[in-house]
Design brief:
The complex is a heterodimer of chains A (112) and B (118). Chain A is mainly beta and 112 residues long. Helix content of chain A is 0%, strand content 58%. Chain A has no helices and 11 strands. In chain A, strands 2, 4, 5, 6, 9, 10 and 11 form a 7-stranded mixed beta sheet that branches. By secondary structure, chain B is mostly beta strands. Chain B has no helices and 11 strands. In chain B, strands 2, 4, 5, 9, 10 and 11 form a 6-stranded mixed beta sheet that branches. In chain B, strands 1-3-8-7-6 form a 5-stranded antiparallel beta sheet, with no helix packed on it. The chains are: A mainly beta (112), B mainly beta (118). Chains A and B meet through strand 4, strand 5, strand 9 and strand 10 of A and strand 4 and strand 5 of B.
């Protein structure tokens, strides 16, 4: 089983709809992240959380919100999806004292 | 403004030869650099890292070189194998300059698609 699990893995939604991407981890890490991958742009940080009570904006947080429901769970919401939010989304985790972040398998989101 | 750039979208190499992937950065606060590898339908996986106090780090077939004055790093894979075919991302953070609060706050390059031919 994957250490970082994302659901759904693929989703097509319509413009204006609310969509939530969920992430859970079994690594016991404190820190969780949401990244977005777009062709030619690499991966960009949307939001991150260093513990359950800590939420921080990344470089492209507009149009997104997050919730850290527990140490192991971090969800990303698009309140009103728009087509330029079509992308591959990755959840990631890291330990507070290590230098490596671990990615989930990704969630393909298409907004039509 | 792209602070981490991988200017080669793709690289094709023969099996057994050396693969050299390049990465340039502009932010002088960056002091920790990583390479990630990504296969289709999978998330990126950590490959190797280097801090700014070093100029070389080696792990088996993979070596990362850092030239701070040129703000340039490279990943060497020797010998290249067909299983190395993947997208390679370089990433950077101001890990130590930010007092350790930059864990996970990585700035990624655009990625380079490496194809190793048998």
């Amino acid at each position: 089983d994957a250490d970082v699990t994302q659901t759904p893995r693929n989703r097509i939604t319509k413009t204006g709809k609310r969509i939530m991407l969920e992430c859970s981890q079994t690594k016991g890490h404190d820190r969780m992240y949401w990244y977005r991958q777009d062709p030619g742009l690499g991966l960009r940080l949307i939001y991150y959380s260093f513990d359950v009570k800590d939420i921080n904006k990344g470089e492209i947080s507009d149009g997104y919100s997050v919730s850290r429901q527990a140490q192991a769970k971090f969800s990303l919401s698009l309140e009103s999806a728009i087509p330029n939010q079509t992308a591959l989304y990755f959840c990631a985790t890291s330990d507070s004292f290590r230098d490596t972040i671990y990615f989930g398998e990704g969630s393909w989101l298409t907004v039509v | 403004d792209q602070q981490v750039k991988q200017n080669s979208p793709s690289l094709s190499v023969q099996e057994g030869r050396i693969s050299i992937l390049n990465c340039d950065y502009t932010n002088s606060m960056f002091d920790y650099f990583l390479w990630y590898k990504k296969y289709p339908a999978e998330g990126p996986t950590f490959l190797i890292s280097i801090s700014s106090i070093k100029d070389k780090n080696e792990d088996g077939r993979f070596t990362v070189f850092l030239n701070k004055s040129a703000k340039h790093l490279s990943l060497h894979i020797v010998p290249s194998q067909p299983g190395d075919s993947a997208v390679y991302f370089c990433a950077a953070s101001a890990l130590y300059n930010a007092g350790g609060t930059s864990y996970g706050k990585l700035t990624f390059g655009q990625g380079t698609i490496l194809t190793v031919h048998p």
